[in-house]
Design brief:
Blueprint (H helix, E strand, L loop, with lengths): L1 E2 L14 E2 L5 H18 L10 E8 L2 E7 L3 H13 L12 E2 L12 E2 L1 H4 L7 H9 L1
Parallel strand pairs: 1-3, 2-3
Antiparallel strand pairs: 3-4, 5-6
């Protein structure tokens, strides 16, 4: 698994590195380890599965986004699982968390944070948060 920081920005956004909080790094690290293990196992005799190359790793709408090329359906499943798991882990510390859903007209960023890092609003479900915003 590679992340080519030397490619032009038209080909990769990895020149910015990982754009998410430290709390998701254990999840990302495990994902990348699992991907490489799968590639090594599948490609032990010849390249059956194309090498995974990272294009961008970031937070978007409160969850992890992992943009890449290469891989196979098994790797796509691992990535989807990691992206989903990020929605219940604090982006800052990795503890259990909930995703806030800001409403219009105030708007704001959708973030996944624990109570310690996000305040009481982050301990509510989406429905509870939307109900509170109506008050």
């Amino acid at each position: 698994m590679t992340a080519n920081r030397n490619l032009p920005m038209t080909e990769t956004a990895m020149c910015w590195g990982f754009e998410c909080g430290d709390g998701w790094f254990p999840l990302i690290n495990q994902l990348m380890s699992n991907i490489q293990h799968h590639l090594d196992w599948k490609n032990k005799d010849s390249e059956v599965v194309p090498q995974v190359v990272l294009d961008q790793v970031k937070e978007k709408f409160g969850t992890l986004r992992f943009y890449y090329s290469g891989g196979d359906d098994y790797i796509r499943g691992m990535v989807a699982m990691a992206e989903a798991m990020s929605g219940i882990l604090c982006e800052k510390c990795g503890k259990p968390a909930t995703t806030n859903w800001p409403t219009l007209p105030q708007g704001g960023w959708v973030r996944t944070l624990c109570v310690e890092h996000g305040g009481e609003d982050y301990s509510m479900s989406e429905e509870e948060f939307l109900e509170k915003e109506k008050e």
